[in-house]
TrEMBL record:
The lineage of its organism: Bacteria, Bacillati, Actinomycetota, Actinomycetes, Micromonosporales. It holds the Pfam family BP74_N. Residues 1-27 form the signal peptide. InterPro entries: BP74_N (IPR056422). Residues 35-135, 149-243 form the BP74 N-terminal domain. Keywords: Signal. This is BP74 N-terminal domain-containing protein. Transmembrane segments: none annotated.
Length: 245
């Protein structure tokens, strides 16, 4: 089970805490989703958090089932400024998120208040966050079939085969609008049945949120003897469709 990065005792910070009445467990779906994205409402603003720990997922469902006037757990997590991830509409997302019954006051606020250079705490913990939607997302499982993803890179088509389960799950997250990522892989020279129209294809492909500029470009820029990087990572690649392959 993932642990919150805030480790404080009630005795030491009693004056700075907001508490909640313990809540009876609410039965989650059976089987429990491997991962979920929960949408929370905070004073009329919404933000989204991914959970993949079974204990935390159960707490999310418990919070969603709370009746008006009942106390319920709320999310806390470390702010990751690398991109929105599942938290579309914001330049950040929460990682290592857990559901808690109390937290220190200085990480409370509305999602719109979390601004780089202005928001001081490394964590975010909106006390009044209410679960308004729960979505099951693609589980990171070991046994999945390979897929071929087609991308548009500034008007040029790029086709990439993905075999890694995590990369495939990332692809479906991008397709569903839960993440903003682009492909990166090792260039292998030679005719291919995947990246049609080119004398190369990408191997060991993954989906990433950032990469070194040196491997960015268009598919037509990759010419043997002229393209120096070992990898290709087109930042502007837009996923157009996914097929089994």
């Amino acid at each position: 089970m993932r642990k919150s990065r805030i480790a404080l005792t009630l005795a030491a910070v009693a004056a700075a805490l907001v508490t909640a009445t313990p809540q009876a467990a609410v039965a989650a779906p059976d089987p429990l989703p491997t991962a979920i994205v929960a949408t929370f409402d905070v004073v009329g603003e919404t933000f989204r958090v991914e959970f993949d720990d079974p204990n935390e997922i159960e707490k999310v469902y418990a919070a969603a089932a709370a009746k008006d006037g009942e106390q319920y757990p709320f999310p806390i997590g470390t702010i990751d400024w690398s991109g929105p991830g599942v938290n579309t509409g914001y330049p950040w997302h929460l990682k290592d998120a857990t559901m808690v019954d109390w937290a220190i006051e200085w990480c409370d606020g509305r999602p719109s208040m979390v601004v780089a250079g202005v928001w001081g705490p490394p964590t975010y913990c909106p006390w009044g966050a209410k679960v308004v939607q729960i979505e099951a997302v693609n589980p990171r499982i070991a046994a999945v079939d390979p897929v071929v993803a087609t991308f548009d890179v500034r008007g040029q088509a790029l086709r990439v085969q993905f075999t890694d389960p995590n990369a495939i799950a990332d692809l479906y997250d991008v397709e569903a609008g839960r993440a903003s990522m682009f492909p990166m892989g090792r260039i292998v020279w030679g005719e291919t049945q995947v990246n049609l129209g080119y004398a190369w294809h990408l191997a060991d492909a993954v989906m990433v949120e950032a990469a070194a500029e040196v491997c960015d470009g268009r598919p037509s820029d990759i010419v043997e003897g002229k393209w120096k990087p070992a990898n290709f990572c087109p930042w502007s690649a837009k996923l157009t469709h996914i097929t089994k392959g």
